[in-house]
Amino acid sequence: MADEPLVLGIETSCDETGIGIVRGHTLLANTIASSMDEHARFGGVVPEVASRAHLEAMTPTVEAALAAGGLKFSDIDAIAVTAGPGLAGALLVGVAAAKSYALGLGVPLYGVNHLAAHVAVDQLEHGPLPKPCVALLVSGGHSSLLLVPDVAQDVISLGSTVDDAAGEAFDKVARVLGLPFPGGPHIDRAAREGSGTAIAFPRGKIDDGTLDFSFSGLKTAVARWIEARERAGESIHVADVAASFQEAVVDVLTRKALQACRKYDVADLLIGGGVAANSRLRALAQERCDAAGVRLRVPRPGLCTDNGAMVAALGSNLVTAGVTPSSLEIPADSSLPITTVHV
């Protein structure tokens, strides 16, 4: 195996079949087959539909990634796969495929944590991670603050959501505003025409002394505000509601993230996960990090959402660190804790 391993990563934790190929920290291919359109009419991801879509997309997506990188199967040094957390059936498809490829190619297999992979992917854009760094991960299923001394071996949970994650709140608020699924991009777009100070929505757990998050109350507050205006026969300015809701979310996320940096005396903050593509979160985080003297790292939007590149990136870290490969009997674990980077 070369000094910089060629790793193929497989991501199937939710509704996107992602195949990425990296050599060291260099991205060679990042191919995604999304089943989002199949879920949109249900207003959310249907696990059985996602699993079937992964089955159908796996082989052609792997082949497309190899073609995009100008590579052959024989070039691959290792296979990495998301073993959890995520939807159980969807994870099983990816894990089974990864075992088959690893066995057939005679290369090592690495089962990795989906959340740690969201941290590792930043290396493909900005180089090696500072040690330590604080990571804020925000997605449809997770809102987490992590202390990361070493992404390949040591990830420490500092705080997480106690109810709805930020991405879930975006989807639910989009629904009551009549915006399409998934809600995040549509709220972001609508908010650009509105005022973030138009409506004083609550900031859950903002000063509770913890690094945990709560967005359920905010989501409910938005729904009740809309219902009250509708009962009164008043018009609703969707852009103002979207902007004010979005501001409440990103205010809490960035405040808590900088609290973590101060508490643990860390000068580098990384933001990852699908919600990290939100334009207001990126702007406010930069503004507050600049004021606090904290260096901010956020991958480009295409690397924030679920993808195979992030799995391959973490796999590359594990190979380089000399971590023992996974057994071909590894399970898919839908509730894999963030502290378990590798299974």
CATH class of the largest domain: Alpha Beta
Supply the number of structural domains: 2
Q: Which ranges are low-confidence, i.e. pLDDT below 50, for 5 or more consecutive residues?
A: none
Radius of gyration: 20 Å
Approximate strand percentage: 15-25%
Mean pLDDT: 95
Binding site for Fe cation: 114, 118, 306
Catalytic activity: L-threonylcarbamoyladenylate + adenosine(37) in tRNA = N(6)-L-threonylcarbamoyladenosine(37) in tRNA + AMP + H(+)
Keywords: Acyltransferase, Cytoplasm, Iron, Metal-binding, Transferase, tRNA processing
Protein name: tRNA N6-adenosine threonylcarbamoyltransferase
Structure description:
- The chain has 343 residues and is of the alpha/beta class.
- Strands 3-2-1-4-5 form a five-stranded mixed sheet, with helices on both faces.
- It is globular, with a radius of gyration of 20 Å.
- The chain has twelve helices and ten strands.
- The longest helix is centred in the last third of the chain and has 26 residues, at 238-263.
- The protein folds into two domains: 6-125 and 303-321, ATPase, nucleotide binding domain (Nucleotidyltransferase, domain 5, 2-Layer Sandwich), CATH 3.30.420.40; 133-298, ATPase, nucleotide binding domain (Nucleotidyltransferase, domain 5).
- β7 and β8 form a beta hairpin.
- Keywords: Acyltransferase, Cytoplasm, Iron, Metal-binding, Transferase, tRNA processing.
